[in-house]
Amino acid sequence: MSVDTTIPATPDDVVAIFRRVLQRDDVTADSDFFQLGGDSLIATRVLSAVARGHGVELTFEEFLAEPTPAGLAGRITGAV
User: Fold this and answer.
1) d(C-alpha 69, C-alpha 61), whole Å
2) Which of 35, 42, 50, 68 is the least crowded, having the fewest Cβ atoms under 10 Å away?
3) Alpha helices in 1-80 (DSSP H)
């Protein structure tokens, strides 16, 4: 029997991750990660935090398609 360890995410959950990895307080649910100064290396920190906190491993391509907290939260919740 497998145990489901995935946890849905809200945009606020992902905002908190963005704020931590980007070291910025001005992140909102609609903020674009890359416009805030994020790059592919820092994006891996976001993806790792999502995997640890929500049990969902998103790809970098998924991150590129949805570079906002609201978009990523939707991807995480859709994978749950």
Assistant:
1) 15
2) 35
3) 11-22, 40-54, 60-65, 69-79
Neighbours of 77 (CB within 10 A): 16
DSSP 63: H
Residues 30-71: tens digit of each pLDDT: 999 999 999 999 999 999 999 999 999 999 999 999 999 999
User: Do 21 and 45 contact (CB within 8 A), yes or no?
Assistant: yes
**Interatomic CA distance for residues 17 and 23, integer angstroms:** 10
C-alpha span between 55 and 8 (Å, rounded)? 9
For residues 8-19, give the mean pLDDT: 95
52, two tokens: 């640890």
